[in-house]
Structure formats: structure tokens, C-alpha cells
Amino acid sequence: MVLRHYWRGGLVARVSDDLHLFTGVRRSRPWREVALLSELVTRGLPVPEPVGARLTPRGPFYRADLLTRRIPHTRTFADWVRGEEGDDPAVWAAVGRTIRRFHDAGAHHADLNVRNILLDQTNRVWLIDWDKGRIGGREPARQERILRRLRRSLAKEAELEKVAATRWEVLARAHEAG
Asked: What are phi and psi of 135, to 5 degrees?
């Protein structure tokens, strides 16, 4: 199992790093993520299976955690790109096709980056960390924003950018082809 605590980001984190305003259980971050992951699992998409969540009230706020099944023998896409086989076009294409599967299902990842893509021992692609993700619509503009976010995450590290400069088009074409 994997236990993930919900942390705050951005400017709000300066006030509180893990307190969230409580507006009801069904609107809480873990409730929404468990519901989304359950739906994605039901649709046969490669995501971690949710096991449970916890809300700890604190006045008008809450702290939260998510528990999912561990996907065994995986590494992040970032670690894979850094490895010996990191420029294998077949895997870059598999990542593009997998993202397209999610987009075809109307699933949109809110923070797709090189650390939220996992590869297992057989190079099967998994997408993790669906906090603030959603299902709804197949807008090409949203899909393009998600891909640009992934591309920017590769560009942040020179070692990853070097490989991405020659392989990104493989991923993009595979996504486009579906």
C-alpha cells in the first residue's frame, strides 16, 4: 500500500502546509480522488486502486490522507528517461498512447509530470496522483495543456530535456494517433 498525505502548495502553503477548508465530505480532496480513481479502475485504465482515505477534522478545516494499492516494481518516467534505455521510442510511444486512452475516456490529469507517470517491469505505463483530476469532456485544448505541462516538466532538468528533445515527437504522434 501507499499512504499519501495531502499537502498544500503555492501561496496558501505559507499559511498552512496541510490544512484544507472543510465544505463537506463529498467535496473533500480524498473523497473526490477516491471516487475518480474508482471510476478509472472500473474503466480499465492504469491507475492505482484506491483502498481508503482519512479526514482528520480540526475546527473548520481538515487534514487528509489517501491509501492506494502499490503498483509493484515501478519507477517514475523521469528515472526511466535517465536510465540506459531512456531513449527507447517504443516506450515514449506507449506513454503517448496511454495518455490518449485517458483523454479518450474524458479523464484529465491536473498535474501530469514526469513523476506522475510510472513504468513497471514490462514498461506498462501507469498514471498516478489524480488529486484535482476529473472526468468530463474531450476538449482538445485541455488535452494540449496537459501535454504542454508534461513537456515543461521534462524541460526543467537538463538530463531529461536532452532525451526529450529527440523523443518528444514520438510521444506526441502516438498521442495524436491514439
From this structure: -115, 135
